[in-house]
Structure formats: C-alpha cells, structure tokens
Amino acid sequence: MLCNACGQQVPPDSTFCNRCGKPIPKETPPRQPAPIFYPTVGGEPGRVAGPATRKFILGGPKAWLVAFFVIAVVLTIISVKTKQPSTERSGPAAYTLPPELILGAHAVRGPEGELYIVGSMNFPDGMKMWVNVGAPDVIASDDDVQVYNSKFETRALWQRIPNPFFNSRMAKFPDGAKLKFRRVPLRAGRYEVHFEADFNSGWQRPEVLRTLGGEGAKNLHGKMFRKLNPDVIDSSQALDYSVAIEVPVLTPEAKAISLVKAAVLTVPGLGRSATDVEANIDLDIGDSALLAKTFHGENAKGILPAKGWIARAKDKDNYEVIFDYTDDAAPAQAIWSVELKTGVVRYVNEHAKNLSWTPD
Hints:
Blueprint lengths: L35 E2 L10 E2 L11 H23 L19 E7 L5 E7 L6 E6 L6 E7 L4 E3 L5 E4 L5 H4 L4 H4 L1 E4 L4 E10 L7 H6 L13 E3 L9 E11 L4 H11 L3 E2 L3 E2 L4 H20 L6 E11 L4 E10 L2 E10 L5 E3 L2 H6 L5
Antiparallel strand pairs: 1-2, 3-4, 4-7, 5-6, 5-10, 8-9, 10-12, 11-12, 13-14, 15-16, 16-17, 17-18
C-alpha cells in the first residue's frame, strides 16, 4: 500500500503516512450491479440474474426492440428468396415438338453375344416403333420398342436358324415348337436397320398422337416420314427410316458360350446326343417342370435358369463355361471347357454331363 501524497510504502491498516503525515484514504470495494429479476412466466416466480445472464432479458424495452429488429430482418430475407426464381425442377419439362425430328442408333453386344439396337431420338416418351435388322430379308426384329427420356433399346436380338437335329419325336414334346429353331448370335458386319411406326390410335397412345399433332401425324416433316397417300395433300404419315449399322464382333466370352450351346457331345456308354447342349437344356427344363408338377404338385419348379450362362478365361485360348441354374430350388452349376482355336467342347462335371446328352 502506498501513500498518495509522497509515495511512501505504508502498512495496510495505516491511517496516516509515517513519512509525510498525510491521511491515507480507505479503499472502497468495487460496486456490484443491482440484481435483475426475470419476469414471472407461467405462474413461476422470477429468479435473480447474475452478471453473465444480463446480456439479454426477455421483457425489457430494449429486448423487445432487438426482437422486433431480428424478426424484420428474417422476414426481409424470406421475401427476397421468394422473389428469386427457383433453380429446382418440380418435374420433367413438358415435351415440345422440335423443328426437326431426328433419330440416331448403334449396335451393342450382350454377354452371350445377343444384339441390342440402342439409340436416341427426340420423339415424345411412349412412342412405339418396330426395329428390323436386315434387308431385304429380316434377320431379327423387335415390334415393341418404346421411347423413354429420348432414348430407346430393343430387346435381345438373335438370328433364328433351323435346328438340324430336330425330329418327329421332339415335335411331340410340350415345347417342341421351341426346339424347331435355334438362336445364334448375328455375325459381325454391316446391316441395314429399319425403323417403322404408324401414327394411329391402334398403335400409339392418345397423348403421343396429341403431341405429334393428331391422328396420322400429318404435319410432321423430314426424310424419316413417308406419306401413306402421296396423291393427296392431307395424307397420314408413317415413320419409315433405314440406316446402316455396324454390328461388333463377338467377345471371346460370348464365342465360348456359343460354342457350348451349339455343341453336340458324345457320352461314353450312351453315344452321341440327339441334339445340341442348348436344346438339351431346353428339353430338361420343360420335362423337369412337367415331372415336378406331376409328382410334387403345382408349386414344384424343376430346373430353372438362375444366373444363366457365364464364361471365364483360364488362359488366352481356353475358357470355362458355366450354366448356373436351380433344380427344385437347389442351386447347381453345369461346367464345360472350351478351346477357342479348335472349337472343342468337353463336359467337366456331372451336371454338365447330364445336360449334354439326349437319347435319339
């Protein structure tokens, strides 16, 4: 403690300075703020607010002023946001008929060598058309191709050839008609693909016809359309468009699967199969379903494809081909080996042996 007059150090309880004799003033404690009470809410008494809680007390005039200011700012922000155009789309934009209708397409292969014609066109969703591969003779076709989100895709397309092993006995089977022809992949090369559609209520949905200008699509223009009655000015039209498309080569996996499907194998002690592996599987599926229902009731399934055909490379020229299926709901796999260079196919396990032979 120091004397305010001469700066002499004096004892804490001194009344006068022992050097200059001046009185030593007493220290006053810091002034404490008066306690502030919260207003009574819901019948509960108020409580004392300490210094840390004095920043904002609900109910005071300043507090109401601050609250009013905050609410005004929030309402202003909301008002500004509602006036700004939204960037979110509430749904797909309505279709507008473009000045020119276009169509583009290409071919892709599936895992078993099947073909898909896929592409894009600016026609309305739901428009239906035929797609035929090959001209003048149609090799494969799909008569129910529909546009969705400006895109289309055919179902799996195969070339259908007569089954050289089909006989009169097979014709009596429940699925004999199916066995008369075999499905094989289309060869690689350039094919003419034809797109065709009628614009009438028997073929197109009402909303499609409305979008395209009504029955007959009489007001459409472009090289893709053909007048059904060219000698009149108000002729109905049809989509009639062809384009050359390159079909890609088979992958090694698809080639291996095709070789197994077409293989006619010999089983020691039983002789040569009456037909190829794929036909044997079709026969077994049909027969097993009939037998299962006969002996085990209508809910019995027999043999059913599961994952189907799968090919795995063992090395560059040798593949393992699997037919994945269920037999009365039990999982099973038939396995064959394939040499791509020679085309030699051999069954590997018992399931494959059973599916590789049918009596003549």
